[in-house]
Specification:
Blueprint (H helix, E strand, L loop, with lengths): L1 H22 L6 H4 L13 H4 L29 E5 L6 H19 L2 E4 L5 H9 L5 E4 L4 H8 L1 E8 L9 E6 L16 E2 L5 H10 L14 E2 L3 H10 L4 E5 H9 L8 E6 L7 E5 L4 H13 L6 H6 L3 E4 L2 H4 L1 H9 L12
Parallel strand pairs: 1-2, 1-3, 6-7
Antiparallel strand pairs: 3-10, 4-10, 4-11, 5-8, 5-9
Helix pairs in contact: 1-5, 4-10, 5-6, 7-13
Length: about 350
Amino acid sequence: MNSVRKMMALITTMLLIAAVGAFAGGGQESDARGEALEPISSEDCTAEERGMLDVYYCDKDGDMVADLPEDERYWLDPDTLIFAYTPVEDPAIYEDMWQPFMDHLSEVTGRDVRFFSVDSYTAQVEAMRAGRLHIAGISTGPTPFAVNLAGYVPIAIMGGEDGQFGYTLQMYVRADSDIYDMDDVKGKRVAHVTPTSNSGNQAPRALFPEEGLYPDEDYDPVYSGSHENSALGVVAGDYDAAPVASEVVDRMADRGLFDPDEIRIIFETDPFPTTSFGIAHRLTPELQEAIREAFLSYDFEGTALGEEFNQDGFIPITYENQWSVIRTIQRANGVEYRLSDIDG
């Protein structure tokens, strides 16, 4: 099953890169698209400066994300900006939801903006790595993969006017289940999301042992593919329990996809950062600044985004600071940042 899933992810990624290439102006001159990146030698970027980044990137300023290439030949200055939100069950709904923001982004940057739906995190990372994806919303766990493998630079996150943001990992069971604590989960059918999912896999593997529950020893995780699949699988009785992101299941309940009375929470963590929003490191400095301005000046009041996510707007973040706890969790799990491991 995993080999089939990997093959489908690869096919999807190839199609995405080709299609996004058409959107992004595959026939434009190279000064708009930028030349293909080349590996940066150890003479030009020391091991300390490179850190966890792939060989195409360097971090001389020490902020843990890729620097803008020193050679302007590699800069991107596209007439059409491609935006992709994290994989969701119903992309059409989210495209409509994001359209007003994309209109705002277009107005601030002076560029056309196109939405492109993806069905895997690998597709997002590959497209940005190829210079075909310029702006993205990437889930918590896959964000470090995008940073290190694709030159992704997180700049914002959804939050409240008070600057607060985050979601929790919740362990869901059916309301009529005989599972009441983590010890009861042993030997049960438990759905994790994907290998790179923070609340759906990485955090459970790092935190559940503190509760006396050891994934792979006390139960064999089954990857469902999404938080939605995990939550609905618990409701349907396909799984006995599932660790999921609170914000995802809250939105599902609000849309009437399931009745909250059908489930019960037996474990919950302190908040983690939510989906990051960011840019390709290769965009020109002027374009990067305009995109930052567009994010931070967009008011959620009266918008579909505000209603769906129950937030006031975007607030500025840095990968170095806000993703520290996520890097700690992934380090504890021995995560290595490889393209083949993004979607498992």
